[in-house]
Amino acid sequence: MAKEHTDRTTLDLFAEERRPGRPKTSPLTRDEQLRINKRNQLRRDKDKGLQRVELKMPSEIVEALNTLAEKHQMSRSELIETMIASQLALAGD
């Protein structure tokens, strides 16, 4: 049987062949890279004066927020921030 280079169903023929892929550029494992990236993101947010707030809401509300955010061409986070700011401005009057 001839070896066809586009045939990937006969794995035993390709066991020794290295397939091209993304080169490894960091000596750290993926988990370590993610941990460092998250730490850096939190540091950047803190430097910008941002604080993390976690909310649990019914999925219907989240879907409505997603639809409204898409309509206004902004992220859901930006939409929620805008809505809270406008309510706080009304409450301050």
UniProtKB/TrEMBL annotation:
Any Pfam family matching the protein: RHH_1
Cited InterPro entries: CopG, Ribbon_hlx_hlx
Annotated region described as Disordered, given as residue ranges: 1-29
Biased composition regions of type Basic and acidic residues, renumbered to the chain: 1-20
Occurrences of domain Ribbon-helix-helix protein CopG (ranges): 52-89
NCBIfam families: PRK11675.1 (NF008671)
Protein name, as recorded: LexA regulated protein
